Amino acid sequence: MSENLWLLPLKNLDDDARAIKLGEIALLEVGGEQRKFVGDPLRMILIGLEEEARYPFVVDSNGTAVGVLTLQAGAATLAGWPDDDSVWLLRGFLIDRRQQGKGLGTVAAEAAVREAAKLTAGLGGGQRGVVLSVNEINPAGQAAYRKAGFEDRGQHLGGDAGPQRTMYRAF
């Protein structure tokens, strides 16, 4: 599966390619239970395109968008990390409800860590890994992140949808 999954950095695409991918992102479906944890995929990506510290990606499988995620610098405390600058924040991560259960989330989370390491090297940052928060009542999300090598670093009470688990993976 991983050889058919790519993270496409939306800020690096030309205008035509970006427009095509934004159209695909607009068609992503968020499942009923997922709505508690994530926002509108297109809205999240458009915000990411406007902010310098955010790097939005489309999760692409076999040439079609199946999800989105954003890596953000300088915002790790939003996930319960003790400082903002030592790690990247992985946020706005979702896989289309019709594509869930195929292992795409785990592969995409692993790829996000690799992309964060590349960003750190390219930008000269001092980040050592990636942090995220996942809702405590989202066991599927927690399991996918654990399979991707993230470790639970404890409870975080900053989430809009209730208590979160802070999870971390080093490069």
Walk me through the structure.
The chain is of the alpha+beta class and 171 residues long. The protein contains 4 helices and 7 strands, in the order βααβββαβαββ.
In brief:
The protein is of the alpha+beta class and 171 residues long. It has helices at 15-26, 41-50, 104-123, 139-147; strands spanning 5-9, 54-61, 64-72, 88-95, 129-135, 151-156, 164-170.
Kindly list the characteristics that best describe this protein:
171 residues, 4 helices, 30% helix, alpha+beta, seven-stranded mixed β-sheet, single chain
Shape: globular
Mean pLDDT: 93
What is the quaternary state of this protein? single chain
The share of residues in extended strands comes to 25-35%
Number of strands: 7
- Helical region count? 4
Q: Distance between termini?
A: 22 Å
As residue ranges, the low-confidence spans are none
Largest sheet descriptor: 7 strands, mixed
Order of neighbouring strands in the sheet with most strands: 1-2-3-4-5-7-6
Helix/strand/pairing category: alpha+beta
Which radius of gyration do the C-alpha atoms yield? 15 Å
Order of helices and strands: EHHEEEHEHEE
Helix content: 25-40%
